[in-house]
Amino acid sequence: MTLQARIGEVTARIAARSHDTRARYLDRISDAAEAGPRRMRLGCANQAHGFAACGPRDKAMLREGEGANLAIVTAYNDMLSAHQPYETYPDLIRAAARTVGATAQVAGGVPAMCDGVTQGEAGMELSLFSREVIALATAVALSHQTFDAVVYLGICDKIVPGLIIGALAFGHLPAVFIPAGPMTSGLSNDEKSRVRQLYAEGKVGRDALLEAEAASYHGPGTCTFYGTANTNQMMMEIMGMHLPGSSFVNPNTPLREALTVEATKRALSVTALGNHFTPVGRMLNERVFVNGIVGLHATGGSTNHTLHVVAMAAAAGIKLTWNDLSDLAEVVPLLTRVYPNGKADVNHFHAAGGMSVVIRELLSAGLLHRDVTTVFGEGLDSYTKEPTLDPDGTITWRDGPAASADTAVLRGTAQPFHATGGLKVLDGDLGRAIIKTSAITQERHVVEAPARVFHSQEALQAAFKAGELTGDMVAVVRFQGPKANGMPELHKLMPPLGVLQDRGHKIALVTDGRLSGASGKVPAAIHVTPEAAEGGAIAKVRDGDRIRVDAVSGRIEILVDGDEWLSRETVTEDLSANQFGVGRELFAPFRAAVGPADAGATVFAF
């Protein structure tokens, strides 16, 4: 199938725009790789420190320097369900490395925080910046320069983007990402959402709410809704950083362990010591990032990736813009219905055919670049295969299903759920914003209503509980951007706004904060930039101003007399309460240096 014209056009303009920065990046990683593995040239004392704690066999191999040495960078902790399974991975990886004459060492750990735990709490203000901390921790782990390739153990929201940014700083090294999979299905996501809304209305108590939440989030693995964590897994697979079919295999199963062993061997097969050297910085090119964005649209993935994919690409010298994402969305159909875009969870998606069907369908429609390098060693066509476990415990990849086993969850490009991916850039008087429409009914794609302005989600909740929110409304929640307070997710807004919408009111949200992949059924213009803390136009809005959020035409407009609007002063806010406590004082340099949302909201200057 010939590549679809828009896909080719957007890819070409990204490559042209990125020509100089990409060339400089590739020159840097070529310089780092051309002299061979750095560890071979370390001084004797350096080498001795690097293998002092190893067992006799690994120490002998590292002394001789002939076998490859594999770095493990892990986001393991046993508080997060998604990362708890990684506890046993280092032993598996070390044992697998020895079978092919190599060694493996845990090079370092990176932090992994959970947005689900910190929602509505002060800790959420560290969440987005944790991506930068993870990238920095990855660099520290690999700074010893004693490794020939790296496997990365990470899944959730900021962890995978941070690991990618860190990996690209060491782009001369091959890299394989190893997932741990989703937890098994528990209480359905729509039932959990129903109980949350009942709690917001005061119709059930905290005991009922906690019981529902615990029945939903009940075991090891990622949360089963299609938020940022599972979007990360989809993107790593469609970008060729995972082994085919490995993203959504449940934890602690024989197939999951066998995939980890196979990923280890694959990483060790592409080092500079062999004939198939595949440095990650060359692998992650413009075509691969476009494939990731296409996957984002086709699956209705997390809006957080409008930040992350821009920042990740920049680390490889590639300049992506929101216009690129929006233009691609116009030609990519929506193929999945996974909560919050439907009732199914990711286990249902995987059972229906999962990634192999998505990739097969997109390739057959010319919507993906098939001529890419992957960690599997072949082009993207090999990602239409899925792994099966042989009786001896080894893996065989077979052709995946030709079509979906459940068209209520997963469809082909001939009969998609929607003709487009449902992600749109909004432009207008209030700046630029992102809106995700895949979970929003058609009649709510345009909302025009009076503004109610708040400077925190707590203020809106208080107004709701006091019965002050009674009619059509565009809730404007500002001073939530990266410079203001780290750009927290604002999911505590969704239950009250959902209640108001269900009462028949026209409701929309406009904010310079985030909502991610679980934003739900209320139309939300998010990531507004310039943000209020930088004097953006959102800081000029007053209660009662009419605002039009139009996801059809891609506009966000303030319907105020032009002269009055121009003469208005921007409101300021005392943000000192957001600058201390829960470690926030340590992040002052991040808030001062961070760039705008449409440039990835990153502190790094690539």
From TrEMBL:
Q: Which cofactor does it need?
A: [4Fe-4S] cluster
Which Gene3D superfamilies does this UniProt record tie to the protein?
IlvD/EDD C-terminal domain-like
Record function comment: Catalyzes the dehydration of 6-phospho-D-gluconate to 2-dehydro-3-deoxy-6-phospho-D-gluconate.
Q: Which SUPFAM superfamilies match?
A: IlvD/EDD N-terminal domain-like, LeuD/IlvD-like
> What family does this belong to?
Belongs to the IlvD/Edd family.
Sorted keywords for this record are: 4Fe-4S, Carbohydrate metabolism, Gluconate utilization, Iron, Iron-sulfur, Lyase, Metal-binding
- Keyword 4Fe-4S included in the entry's annotation: yes
Domain Dihydroxy-acid/6-phosphogluconate dehydratase N-terminal span(s) in chain numbering: 69-381
Gene name, Swiss-Prot/TrEMBL: edd
Q: Where along the chain is [4Fe-4S] cluster bound?
A: C156, C223
What name appears for this protein in its UniProt entry?
Phosphogluconate dehydratase
Could you tell me which species this protein originates from? Lichenifustis flavocetrariae
- Known PROSITE patterns for this protein? ILVD_EDD_1, ILVD_EDD_2
> What PANTHER family does the annotation carry?
D-XYLONATE DEHYDRATASE (PTHR43661), PHOSPHOGLUCONATE DEHYDRATASE (PTHR43661:SF1)
